[in-house]
Design a protein that fits this description.
The complex is a heterodimer of chains A (about 190) and B (about 725). Chain A is α+β, with helices and mostly antiparallel strands. Chain A contains eight helices and four strands. In chain A, a hairpin with a 2-residue loop joins strand 3 and strand 4. The longest helix of chain B has 16 residues. Classes of the chains: A alpha+beta (about 190), B alpha/beta (about 725). At the A-B interface, helix 3 and helix 4 of A face strand 9 of B.
């Protein structure tokens, strides 16, 4: 068990966690947002230390925190590439060429689905419905959605991603934390 | 939850009166109606429960219509009987066509990923999944697709092996670690078809109580590394017994074959261990009595031993003892039965005229023990184990409870879990940061090395400040006011608020009264108990298995005690020493003293089950019986005398210690009238007041408490 004091949460992260926890009757209720916070603080994924730190900070058993972290697929319990390309393969995207997009991306990146490029730059996975069907095929990278992706423009997407800011697992985690810290987005629904 | 009100329910047409809120699965079981289940366990919480869906029943409740007519409204969906609280007029059917079909369906789902490797599974033959499938499942599988596969025999810890393929995700083990042992080491990882139990970061499942998960697992997913593949359940015989690995005296079952204890399972005793065991007992007991055992008496022949007959061995021993007379001494081990100790005592006092016998290997003096007994009552422990559940607060001092007294710890945790008790703890600052009791304690106060008396005094002082109206003599107030000022920290103040709520329980570990400051500790404990009104509920926790029995028998009342006996052996003042079931070379608090004494002793006879380090230094070695090979009684930490039963014949010509003593008495010309262990017990009952209430009837059940001495003013 890692003591909370030995953890890697930044001062800002600790303050945000305290703010989140204060809105729950029991710190155990804040496991999901705390894991998002940890995923940001630990650079876009949840190594064992991150889970231990969340457990220590919330006063919950580490086994329970790991159970939660491994239950939800959006928490990264393994390190992803700097860009995590998630291609929606649900009904609409699937009908409108998602698998051609995947084939093309596999070709460009030289990896198979579920793998990470040798330089650690890209991870390629499937995603369940991203709820943006009007723009099928949809690809999510970090906190950004890209619509209308097809086999022809897939190479452009990869090129664009190489030079862009953000779009990392870390920035996705941060965007979610920013959205769920109470009081940050007045009027927004708090997760 | 249950309340005392009874309601009328009907199960399969049988009208029953049951407590309102009782779960239907329990009502049905009492009425002899079998409802199959996997995840249900009466001692585990319903959080994450009702998940196996095996106990489905159909249920209807009376409904009053607008015109006042009462009709029976059937619930459209089947209900899980394990989570269905009994209510007035409830009608339950457990064997309808729909239920029979539903059970078959549930089993089909549970078996989809189950490997059906029963022929090579340890659980085969005593497996709820196997049994329920036979009774309630389909005869053949319709599932032809690929099953889920994992590596076999994943070692969760040094004791427990996990076969994830066999797991049906009933959450019994995870709930055990969360609810009962409290270490919460197991939980479900991943989801859906990938769901599996595991520990955080694949760390070892290091719970002190991990073995219980093997017992409650309804399939062969969790198995014991010691027992794995060593027997099939139908080849085993089972005997009731009492665990000898610590003083808690758990009721256990010995599963044995060919004179070997292959595994230990818990036996229900609501007064002691409920049904749990600790790993030390479950895995330690079979290990401690297996291995190379003594089978015949050994006589020293130069630097070797030579096997001799009992006749020869006892002849030598009797001659030496007789020559030593009242200078002869006996050291007894903590695992000896009450009967052994009584017989040894009779040999010393009646046969030899000696009072030199003791059982203590620690640093606690008989003076400290007797002073504590005088102050807080000798026997039995006033609160006891089950009594902890009703105590508003329980203060633990001088003991790492979970390690030294695992079952007392579980009961303390239970009383906290159901909100009845505040656990308080005073621990040395050298103890680990996360103590077992500290995990749920209302307050955990730390004191510097040997600072227990000051810590207790500080608690008294804060208590007096908290309750100005408290009745206390000026002497006590003056005492509380002296010394270092009370620690004004959160933990101490929280403890004072709990102590101020009225009488509670104090558990005093042997460690608290074993140091040179035992007088100060005792005075401070006396004052704290007096101020809180708890003088009648201070429980001394003895360490050794039958230390409480030895104490009740007056074993070791001789002042210089073990130290004096060892010194006598070294100096020649004790010309003959019998060490029965003890191993001072490894157990005495200062082993060098014991070794030196044994090296210089003129005659030492050791009776034990194995050739211990002490036995190797003896002149005569006598083979004795373990708890599995004989009958007898043991007295546990709370003063409960409990019977154990012989499981199989002794090795070779081994003999229980009471019988060795009886045969020696005969050779000394003072024959006893003991033909069996019951005769020793009967003698003990009529001659030792504390054992006066121990009836054979009670011994057949949960055991009998020692009788408190009559106080004569």
């Amino acid at each position: 068990m890692v003591a909370a004091s030995a953890g890697r949460f930044s001062e800002a992260g600790q303050a945000q966690l305290a703010e989140i926890v204060s809105h729950y009757p029991d710190p155990g209720g804040a496991i999901l947002p705390a894991l998002w916070l940890a995923q940001r603080e630990y650079g876009g994924w949840l190594p064992a230390d991150a889970i231990a730190e969340v457990a220590a900070r919330l006063g919950r058993p580490a086994s329970e925190i790991q159970g939660v972290a491994t239950f939800y697929t959006m928490y990264n319990t393994q390190q992803r590439g700097r860009r995590h390309i998630e291609v929606c393969t649900c009904l609409t995207c699937g009908c409108l060429g998602a698998y051609e997009v995947i084939d093309r991306l596999e070709q460009i990146l030289g990896i198979h689905l579920g793998q990470t490029t040798a330089d650690g730059e890209f991870t390629l996975t499937e995603a369940e419905c991203l709820n943006y069907c009007e723009a099928a095929t949809v690809v999510q990278v970090g906190e950004r959605y890209f619509g209308g992706v097809n086999a022809e423009n897939a190479a452009d997407l990869v090129a664009r991603l190489r030079g862009s800011e953000g779009c990392t697992p870390e920035s996705l985690s941060n965007a979610i934390v920013e959205a769920i810290v109470p009081g940050r987005n007045a009027g927004a629904t708090h997760g | 939850m249950n309340d005392s009100k009874l309601v009328n329910v009907t199960i399969n047409g049988v009208p029953l009166q049951v407590p309102k809120g009782e779960r239907i699965i329990e009502s049905a079981r009492r009425a002899g109606i079998d409802i199959p289940y996997f995840c249900y366990h009466p001692r585990l919480s319903m959080e994450n429960g009702a998940n196996c869906r095996m106990c489905l029943v159909e249920m209807a409740m009376p409904r009053t219509g607008p015109d006042g007519t009462v009709t029976l409204a059937k619930h459209p969906k089947p209900q899980t009987a394990c989570s269905l609280p009994a209510d007035e007029g409830m009608v339950v059917e457990t064997e309808t066509e729909a239920i029979v079909k539903a059970r078959r369906g549930v089993l089909e789902f549970l078996l989809i990923n189950h490997p059906l490797d029963c022929p090579v599974c340890d659980r085969g033959g005593e497996c709820p999944l196997q049994n329920n499938t036979l009774h309630y499942g389909a005869g053949a599988s319709r599932y032809i697709e690929a099953k889920r596969h994992y590596p076999k025999a994943y070692p969760l810890s040094e004791h427990v092996v996990l076969d994830r393929e066999r797991c049906i995700q009933c959450a019994r083990c995870t709930r055990f670690t969360q609810d009962i042992s409290g270490d919460a080491q197991l939980d479900f990882l991943k989801r859906g078809a990938d769901t599996q139990i595991g520990t955080f970061n694949a760390a070892a499942f290091s719970s002190l109580f991990s073995g219980n998960t093997i017992e409650i697992c309804p399939v062969g997913a969790l198995t014991s590394r010691d027992y794995r593949f060593r027997a099939r359940p139908w080849d085993l015989a089972t005997q009731k017994s009492i665990c000898t690995e610590c003083s808690n005296g758990c009721s256990i079952k010995l599963d044995h074959r060919d004179g070997l204890v292959l595994r230990v399972n818990g036996r229900v005793n609501e007064a002691v261990n409920e049904e749990w065991t600790c790993d030390r007992g479950k895995f330690g007991l079979p290990a401690s009595i297996s291995g190379e055992r003594l089978t015949a008496p050994l006589l020293r022949d130069g630097d070797r031993f030579r096997e001799v007959t009992w006749d020869v061995a006892l002849g030598v021993v009797a001659e030496k003892l007789q020559a030593a007379g009242k200078q002869a001494a006996v050291l007894a081990g903590s695992k000896l039965a009450n009967e052994d100790l009584y017989a040894l005592q009779a040999l010393c006092r009646g046969g030899l005229g000696s009072v030199r016998y003791d059982y203590r290997m620690g640093t606690q003096s008989s003076e400290a023990r007797d002073a504590a007994a005088m102050l807080f009552g000798p026997n039995p422990a006033p609160t006891g184990i089950a009594g902890l559940e009703a105590s508003p607060w329980t203060l633990v001092v001088g003991s790492d409870l979970a390690v030294e007294h695992p079952i007392v710890f579980l009961r303390l945790r239970k009383s906290w879990r159901f909100g009845k008790s505040k656990a308080l703890e005073m621990v040395s600052s050298s103890a680990p940061a996360n103590t077992h009791v500290g995990a749920f304690a209302w307050s955990s106060v730390r004191y510097a090395d040997r600072g227990l008396p000051e810590s207790l005094r500080s608690a008294c002082s804060l208590l007096l400040a908290e309750m100005p109206g408290l009745t206390a003599t000026p002497e006590i107030r003056a005492w509380a006011a002296t010394g270092t000022p009370p620690a004004d920290d959160t933990a101490s103040r929280r403890m004072a608020t709990a102590l101020s709520t009225g009488p509670g329980t104090i558990l005093v570990g042997e460690g608290a009264l074993s140091g040179p400051d035992w007088r100060e500790v005792l005075v401070a404990l006396g004052h704290l108990a007096g101020l809180t009104g708890s003088t009648g509920s201070v429980n001394r926790l003895v360490s050794g298995c039958n230390d409480r029995g030895a104490e009740a028998l007056g074993f070791g009342d001789w002042q210089p005690g073990t130290a004096g006996i060892l010194a006598g052996a070294a100096s020649g003042a004790t010309p003959a020493l019998w060490i029965a079931g003890a191993d001072p070379v490894t157990q005495y608090h200062d082993p060098q003293v014991a070794i030196a004494a044994l090296e210089q002793a003129s005659f030492v006879v050791v009776s034990d089950i194995k050739l211990t380090a002490t036995a190797r230094m003896a002149d005569v070695v006598l083979p004795s019986c373990s708890v599995a090979e004989r009958d007898g009684t043991l007295t546990n930490v709370e003063g409960r005398v409990q019977r154990f039963w012989k499981a199989f014949e002794p090795r070779g010509s081994a003999s229980p210690d009471w019988l060795i003593a009886a045969r020696l008495l005969q050779r000394l010309g003072k024959p006893s009238v003991w033909f069996g262990w019951q005769d020793v017990l009967a003698d003990m009952r009529s001659h030792v007041a504390a054992f006066g209430g121990v009836s054979l009837d009670a011994l057949e059940k949960d055991g009998a408490m020692l009788v408190a001495p009559q106080v004569v003013d």
